[in-house]
Write a structure and sequence with these properties.
Layout: H1 7-26, E1 31-32, H2 44-53, E2 55-58, H3 64-79, E3 106-109, E4 142-147, H4 154-160, H5 163-173, E5 178-187, E6 195-198, E7 217-222, E8 232-234, H6 246-253, E9 262-263, E10 271-275, E11 280-282, E12 291-299, H7 301-304, H8 320-326, H9 328-340, H10 350-355
Parallel strand pairs: 1-2
Antiparallel strand pairs: 2-10, 3-4, 4-5, 5-12, 6-11, 7-10, 7-12, 8-9, 8-11
């Protein structure tokens, strides 16, 4: 059940919690620009900090021009969203984006609600987060996740192949890393949904080769910045403690305000990297600030190959062909980025280099990625 208290008292408690959490976050020291060695490898102190805390803030990754392209294409997607979960049209009466796909790419929530916490089938998020009270002007439901953004936005596809981010991925998961999933997470001012405290990992907690990195990680590109009020909160180091009893942790804290949690506080163009085993969540966005994250993640191949996952296809075994097919998105993304930034040195994805697979990006190949997220590799 959600924590129920007087709204004014709750708001005051949240404001204090946000202030204190931001101070704790600033004191962790786990932030800075991407730094590579002369050999092109990630600076070891960044990797060490990520492994210790379970998250890291990569600063100034995207410049103003690329960020403007990401924002423009995201805002075009929002303009074309269906007006409700069952609507075939957007706010202008045009056919809405995403029609005809094998599965809807949109997740909906009531404004300021927590659609996952305590819901049936959501064992990962057993305790509902504090929910807010929307104004009468808010719609009945708002989109808070847009899956499969690489098929809707070329700017997102290019960002997916950022050579610095892929170098970070290689440092963590090895050169044969494989994709996980992608999505825009949208926290609208005064409406954005909460995400109950949870750990993303599902399948490998009892794996004989378990370690703190086995469930992979997510990047979160910040299009508009992130604050304590609208951003994700992490419990540093919790990724190293195995599967946690979230009921017990919330009960011991007397509610959702976990005492050791810290928010990620970012500027536009910063990127947070988050271990999928870390305990994290976010509060309903009662602030006036929009947050939009372009999220995408990666696994190490050894954790995926032969695993029985829980993806969009249901419980299937992730064999070499499914992994190869899902990894095509890396090839398309690198090709799209090379085309748009011909002067930039692009990342070389080793599985494609070894196999001789080559990729190009143009209108003729666009149908190849329709509903590609149905092949997400989710463990």
């Amino acid at each position: 059940m959600a924590t129920v208290v007087d709204p004014q008292t709750q708001d005051m408690a949240l404001e204090s919690y946000f202030r204190e959490g931001e101070v704790r976050a600033r004191n962790l020291g786990n932030r800075g620009p991407i730094r590579l060695t002369e050999q092109g490898k990630l600076a070891p102190e960044i990797l060490d900090s990520y492994k210790e805390h379970g998250f890291y803030i990569l600063e100034h990754v995207f410049g103003d021009a690329e960020l403007a392209e990401l924002k423009a294409e995201f805002e075009d997607i929002v303009d074309r969203l269906p007006t409700s979960p069952d609507s075939p049209v957007d706010q202008h009466g045009r056919p809405a984006i995403g029609l005809g796909l094998a599965q809807s790419p949109f997740h909906w929530s009531k404004p300021l609600g927590d659609p996952f916490g305590g819901a049936d089938g959501m064992e990962r998020a057993p305790v509902k987060m504090i929910e807010g009270t929307p104004t009468a002007e808010q719609p009945r439901e708002v989109v808070f996740i847009i899956r499969g953004p690489l098929q809707f936005s070329d700017a997102a596809l290019r960002a997916y192949a950022h050579p610095g981010l892929l170098a970070v991925t290689e440092a963590i998961n090895g050169g044969d890393f494989v994709p996980f999933s992608e999505g825009f997470v949208v926290k609208q001012p005064g409406a954005g949904a909460a995400f109950a405290w949870h750990q993303d990992g599902m399948t490998h907690w009892d794996h004989p080769e378990w370690d703190p990195l086995i469930h992979g990680f997510n990047f979160m590109i910040q299009l508009y910045g992130s604050t304590a009020a609208n951003g994700v909160w992490f419990v540093p180091g919790s990724h190293r403690r195995g599967k946690l009893d979230i009921h017990d942790l919330v009960s011991a804290a007397g509610g959702n305000l976990l005492p050791d949690a810290v928010p990620f506080v970012c500027n536009p163009g910063d990127v947070a990297i988050s271990n999928r085993q870390i305990l994290h969540g976010s509060f309903a966005n009662i602030s006036r600030d929009l947050r939009v994250s372009l999220n995408f993640g990666f696994h190490r191949r050894s954790a995926i190959i032969g695993a029985r996952g829980k993806g969009q296809q249901g419980a299937v075994v992730y064999d070499a062909e499914l992994i190869r097919k899902r990894s095509e998105m890396i090839g398309y993304a690198i090709a799209a980025r090379r085309q748009h930034y011909p002067e930039q040195t692009q990342y070389v994805y080793q599985p494609h280099a070894r196999s001789g697979e080559t990729y190009r990006w143009n209108e003729a190949v666009r149908p190849e990625i329709d509903a590609y997220y149905m092949r997400d590799l989710n463990i």
